[in-house]
Specification:
mainly beta
Length: 128
C-alpha cells in the first residue's frame, strides 16, 4: 500500500550538519502532515518537526533555529535539514505521514482509504 523510506542519517561531529529525507510511495492521492520524530535510548519518542500540506510548520523548542523541515508535495517527500547539531540530538529519527489518502483497487472499481504511516527509522549520532 504505502511505504515511507528514510535516508540521510549517520555520524557527525558536534556543530555539523545532516539532511534527512523521507519518500512516501504507493497509490497515494494526498498526504495531510509529514513530520519527523526521534527516540533516544531510554526516552520516549518525541516530535521534532512537522509540516502540513499547506506548508505550516511546528518545531520542538529544542531544535528551533537549528532544524528546518520542508516538503515536496509532487514527490511526496519530506526533508529535515539539521544544522549546529549537538550530542543531545543523538537518536533514531522516524518519519511520519498522517492523513494519507490512498487508493485501494477492488474487483470492480477503486476505493479510497486513509491511514497514518511510519518509516523504519534512521540513526543520527552526534559526537562531542
Amino acid at each position: 500500500q504505502v511505504q515511507l523510506v528514510e535516508s540521510g542519517g549517520g555520524l557527525v561531529q558536534a556543530g555539523g550538519s545532516l539532511r534527512l529525507s523521507c519518500a512516501a510511495s504507493g497509490s497515494i492521492l494526498r498526504i495531510n502532515g509529514m513530520g519527523w520524530y526521534r527516540q533516544a535510548p531510554g526516552k520516549q519518542r518525541e516530535l521534532v518537526a512537522r509540516i502540513t500540506n499547506s506548508d505550516s510548520t511546528n518545531y520542538a523548542d529544542s531544535v528551533k533555529g537549528r532544524f528546518t523541515i520542508s516538503r515536496d508535495n509532487a514527490k511526496n517527500t519530506v526533508y529535515l535539514q539539521m544544522n549546529s547539531l549537538k550530542p543531545e540530538d543523538t537518536a533514531v529519527y522516524y518519519c511520519n505521514a498522517d492523513g494519507v489518502v490512498y487508493s485501494v483497487p477492488l474487483a470492480r472499481g477503486v476505493q479510497t482509504a486513509t491511514n497514518d504511516y511510519w518509516g523504519q527509522g534512521t540513526q543520527v549520532t552526534v559526537s562531542s
